[in-house]
Each structure stands twice: as C-alpha cells, then as structure tokens.
Design goal:
There is one protein chain. By secondary structure, the chain is an all-alpha fold. The protein has one domain: Na+/H+ antiporter like fold, CATH 1.20.1530.20. About 75% of the residues lie in helices and about 0% in strands. It contains 14 helices and no strands. Helix 2 runs parallel beside helix 8, helix 4 packs antiparallel against helix 5 and helix 13 runs antiparallel to helix 14.
Length: about 325
Amino acid sequence: MHPEQTISAPTGGRSGGDKAARRAVTVFPVLVLAAGALGLAAPGVFEGWGTGVPYLLGVVMFCMGLTMTPLDFQGVVKRPWAVALGLVAHYVIMPGLGWLIAHALNLSPQLAAGVILVGCAPSGTASNVVTYLARADVALSVSVATVSTVLAPLVTPPLTLLLAGEYLPVDAGSMVTDILKTVLLPVLAGLVVRLLFGRYVDRVLGALPWLSALTIAAIVAIVVAGSAAAIKSAAALVFLAVFLHNGLGLALGYGAGKLARLGQPASRAMAFEVGMQNSGLAASLATAHFSPLAALPSAVFSVWHNVSGALVAAWMARTRKSPDGQRPSSASGA
C-alpha cells in the first residue's frame, strides 16, 4: 500500500482532489527512485538496517489504519459479488503471472521467489487514488483493497509456499506471524485510534502521506543497498519481469471485470486492484524469509506500478468522465 493513499477525500471540489492526488502520485515514485539510487550508490550507509524493515512497514500500515473508517467496509455488504470477484481475480491472476514470468524468464531462485512473492501480496492501496484519477469505481477499489489486506495473513503464505516452494524453502507459518505483526495489527491499531480520537487524527491527516512516503523510501533504500552488488547484472531482467507482471495484471484485471459484465467504471477499478501490489509487504517478507536479492523485484515494483498506474489512469480519464464523482478513500499504504 502506498503513501499517496493517505490523501483525504477532497472537500473543496474535484479539481482540488485531483491536484493533491496527482502531486502525490508524481512525487512518490521520484522519491522512491532517489532512495533506490542512494542505496545503490552508498550501500554501506544502510548496512545492518535490514532488521528494521518490518518495523518501518508497520509504521506505514498504522498510517493506513489511521485514515480508515468503518465506511470503507460498506461496499462489501452492498456489492459482495463484485468484491469477491476482485479478490479472486487478484489472488489468482497476480500469483499465477508471477510463477509464469519466473519460468518464462528462467529467473534465478532468489529472483523467482521475489517475483512470485510480489504476486502473492495483497492489493496495493495506491490503487484507490489512481482509480479516482481514472474516473472509475472508487468504492469497489476501496473494498477490494481493504479486504485483500485483511485476508493477507490467510492467503499470502500458502500461495507463496505453493508457487515459490520449488525455488526456495518457505516457512508459511512464520510468514503468517510476520504479516499479522507488520500488517494486520498496525492497521487495526490505527483504525481503533481513529475511532477513539478521530477529531485529533483529522488534524494530522495531511501529514500522513508524506510520513508514509518517507518510510517507504527508507525501505527501498535498505532493500536496494542489501543487494547492490547484484543489481547491475540483474536490473534489466528484474525490470522486464516487473513490467510484464504489472502490465499483464492491469490488462487481465480489466478483462476480468468486462467478462463479469461489471461495467466500465468497475472494470477499470478491477484493473488497478489486480495490477497494483503491496510491494512494501513483499519487500519486508522477502528480506526476512529469503534474501535482500529476493526483495529486489518488490523495490522495482514499488516504483514502477505507481508510474504505470498514473499513466493508465490519465489515459482512462481522457476517454470517460467520472460516472458518479466518487473520491478516493483516505487510506495509506506501501
């Protein structure tokens, strides 16, 4: 989930919300790219920081929880079929694509496991903002992203074991515990704080996207620094894998919505919910359970899916005006 998600629903008209969303979608990839360059140029600066990645991710997920309200779950009750389809498409298409791409490109075991792990991660909630920019179905996007995050401890570990187990040993039980500690518990804690101290939290909502952005940038710098020696030889192959993974995910997600006859706005939301991943979680799990090199696909994905998402959203917005004037949820993530 990504920090641009923390943008509150605009209250001063759609143009103000668009400006805030575009600013975050533009600044965040640049910041992450700069952090990756720093990690590559000066890896010694981040030596020994790898153990801090789960805690940094916990900060991001807590920020996400702070921006959530019970209203984010209403869409599940209103349209259970559409949300269920989004969840199935996300957790079938992206893991399957990760496995196929790893085989097709003959990736090394570490990189293959990393690509598959990205595919098995829950939806990246930056999808909410790009769905908004695309004039698509934001309510569906919020529901799928929220539920996929809640279900991650039950779904991500067994999928990773099933698909990546042929490359590297996978301790699914330990992975469940890590996801609970670094994702679900911080999100729930943030939600509880928002419910109890909402009027105080509202005063700092504007600062949360930038706190999340800086934290994600730190994660990327640490991950890149940990595998700096291998990046020069593997960078082109990893980017190709990420480009295919993200691009095919966007296309197949849109196609799933069209096949199910969900309508144009919902199909566009499905594209982003399937094609955009919680790469921060994938990076954390890869670092903890595999190696820094296995976390490299997550770091690259973290930058690229924001760039591609923003470009696709801009193209979609030019071909159709907003059907209902929806605004993005106040969520944050990696």
